[in-house]
Specification:
Helix 1 packs parallel to helix 4 and helix 3 runs parallel beside helix 6. By secondary structure, the protein is mainly alpha-helical. The protein is elongated, with a radius of gyration of 33 Å. 50% of the residues lie in helices and 7% in strands.
């Protein structure tokens, strides 16, 4: 008696059990192969924009230096000759002109930080780490440029030679000096805070993921 033949099992299709990864939707991170959506710039573009921002902000420090030299109060000095030696002292020992020099630089730095942050945000309309870093670095370099330019434009730094040139008892202006070096950070701090605030309030929002069906 012949046993019934058992039909062979159907061929195993491995492709039916393989998980196929769907491509990311258009505009999602990674859709263009560089970690950015189709609507956003690539890393090279952001770095180029950041370099332009840093250079432009730093060069605007020349304007800050001119304003500081023009608006900073003058510190009056007086020279006197004692024997063969010259001495220089403050004409008004209770005056606050020296504090005013630092205060003017700080206020100008805050104003430049505000303006630079608003301009960068209006031109780009988005945030990004490279732009924020460029804004801070450019503000710091601009502050240093303004400080050195103001000192260079200000009165002569050799006060003894200046006192001898103008004569005994004649009032002359002290060199333009920034005593509080922390004022150099006013511009970058103000720029970073204002730009982050504008981005948080008016920057583009990421689309919310759809809720799963109930």
């Amino acid at each position: 008696m012949t046993a019934p033949l058992t039909p062979p099992p159907p061929p195993h299709d491995d492709s039916a059990h393989q998980l196929r990864q769907a491509p990311p939707p258009a505009g999602a991170p990674g859709a263009d192969g560089y970690g950015y959506g189709q609507d956003g710039p690539g890393m090279r573009t952001e770095l180029r924009e950041a370099a332009v921002i840093a250079v432009a902000v730093a060069l605007s420090g020349a304007l800050l230096g001119l304003l500081w030299w023009w608006l900073a109060p003058q510190v009056p000095l007086v020279g006197d000759r004692i024997g063969k030696n010259w001495v220089v002292y403050l004409k008004d020992t209770e005056g606050e002109q020296a504090v005013g020099v630092d205060g003017v630089f700080t206020l100008l730095g805050l104003a430049f930080g505000l303006v630079s942050a608003v301009v960068v945000f209006l031109l780009r309309r988005r945030g990004g780490v490279p732009a924020v870093v460029a804004l801070g670095v450019g503000g710091l370099l601009g502050s240093v440029l303004a400080w050195r330019l103001g000192v260079w434009l200000g009165p002569e730094s050799d006060v003894l030679a200046h006192a001898q040139a103008v004569g005994k008892g004649v009032t002359f202006s002290a060199p333009l000096k920034l005593s509080a070096k922390g004022a150099l950070l006013a511009w970058p701090f103000a720029g970073l805070l204002v730009h982050l605030g504008l981005t948080a309030l008016f920057g583009p929002r990421d689309p919310e993921p759809p809720y799963p069906p109930a």
